[in-house]
Design brief:
Elements lengths: L1 H43 L9 E4 L11 H6 L12 H7 L16 H15 L1 H11 L4 E4 L3 H6 L2 H21 L3 H21 L2 H23 L4 H10 L7 H26 L17 H28 L6 H17 L8 H30 L2
Antiparallel strand pairs: 1-2
Helix pairs in contact: 1-12, 3-7, 4-7, 7-8, 7-9, 8-9, 9-14, 11-12, 11-14, 12-13, 13-14
């Protein structure tokens, strides 16, 4: 009797533990099956979930924007120059560039003070601006980005954006001082840099490129209000032409890059780390279980991709023109996940929220560009 009791007291817990691990195995396998089924169906429609290490348009080194010596030097380091302490941005946003109001301290007009300060900044960085314009003239723009984590930490386009703002300041200065040839030169180079940024398809590059196109719209509007000669209108008709790919499509490509990069990050964390997926110290033993971690991996990948695929990517692959309604549907899905605070899929929310909300701004920029082109075509 005692032996039977010992056998039962040891055997039943072992059976329960075995049953629990069997259930966990099938439960995690179920999540993996859901992810693999989804992936296979999406790939059959033409989707690609692989991480590409080269971004932008491929070309010869001498034709590559990022291979230019000045870009290679400046885009890899943060500058401690006062240029990057918001001096330029403050001047771009300051209405005094058109103000005839007299400054009491100097006795000069605010416009004159603005021009003097702008002239000082431009003269100080004249060689840098010449090099930036030379680089912008290169027809190709590509570079190697090994991982999504490396892309997320990269600040190249943030630095290049600061330098482009200085070029924009020079364009405003040349417009104000009636240097038309120099003004149009700077505008064409800014457009070229914006094209390079949009062509890379990484999130920061797209944000920078879209911002530059927004500035082009504003300067064109300002120029149009002053009245333009036929050759000046011809310049803007070229400068404001379609960037070659709709901004909606540019945004979609950036979202695909982020998606594929995060998939790579999830898999690397699981397979290359003793801790599997990174987690907080306060997580329970349940969450640290191997099978739970496998389910988390599959669930995160599924949730990361599913909403984007159903709302935007799949309709695009079917030939639909992607517009506001598709992005609104996507935004609703993401907001629903945030409210649910679901166990799976939370890792993918932050980038989607940023990129999803960017669409409204893109829509306005595109509408403004088309209105300006229409005005230019109709103006005498």
């Amino acid at each position: 009797m005692r032996r039977k009791t010992v056998v039962l007291s040891c055997g039943i817990p072992l059976l329960l533990i075995s049953a629990l691990f069997t259930w966990l195995h099938f439960w995690s396998a179920g999540w993996e099956k859901r992810w693999l089924t989804f992936r296979q169906q999406a790939e059959a429609q033409g989707e690609d979930f692989s991480w590409q290490t080269t971004y932008g348009t491929k070309g010869e080194k001498d034709n590559n924007f990022f291979a230019h010596p000045w870009v290679k030097e400046k885009a890899t380091i943060d500058s401690d120059d006062p240029l990057f302490d918001n001096d330029v941005n403050d001047m771009l946003m300051h209405s005094s560039m058109d103000s005839v109001e007299i400054d009491e301290a100097s006795g000069k007009s605010k416009k004159q003070l603005w021009l003097e300060k702008a002239d000082e900044l431009i003269a100080k960085h004249d060689k840098d601006l010449s090099a930036l314009c030379d680089a912008a003239s290169r027809p190709e723009c590509s570079r190697e980005i090994s991982t999504w984590a490396a892309m997320a930490e990269d600040s190249s386009w943030s630095i290049l954006s600061d330098w482009s703002h200085l070029l924009l300041l020079r364009a405003y200065y040349r417009q104000a001082t009636h240097e038309r040839v120099g003004f149009e030169h700077d505008m064409s180079k800014l457009r070229a840099i914006a094209q390079h940024a949009l062509g890379e398809h990484t999130t920061l590059a797209v944000v920078v490129g879209v911002g530059m196109f927004a500035w082009l719209n504003e300067i064109a509007k300002r120029d149009l209000a002053k009245g333009l000669a036929p050759e000046q209108k011809a310049f803007w008709l070229v400068c404001l032409r379609d960037p070659g790919k709709s901004l909606d499509r540019v945004l979609m490509d950036a979202m695909r890059v982020d998606r594929n990069g995060m998939l790579q990050l999830l898999e690397n964390d699981f397979y290359n780390s003793n801790d599997f997926i990174a987690r907080d110290a306060g997580e329970s033993l349940w969450q640290k279980n191997f099978f739970v971690q496998k389910a988390l991996l599959a669930g995160n990948k599924l949730m990361l991709c599913e909403d984007f695929q159903e709302s935007i990517a799949a309709p695009h692959l079917r030939g639909e023109a992607i517009g506001r309604s598709h992005f609104e549907e996507f935004k609703k899905r993401i907001e629903a996940h945030r409210k649910e605070d679901s166990f799976h899929g939370r890792i993918g929310l932050a980038p989607w929220i940023v990129l999803g909300s960017l669409h409204g701004g893109l829509d306005e920029i595109e509408k403004k560009r088309r209105r300006l082109l229409k005005k230019l075509a109709q103006s005498p």
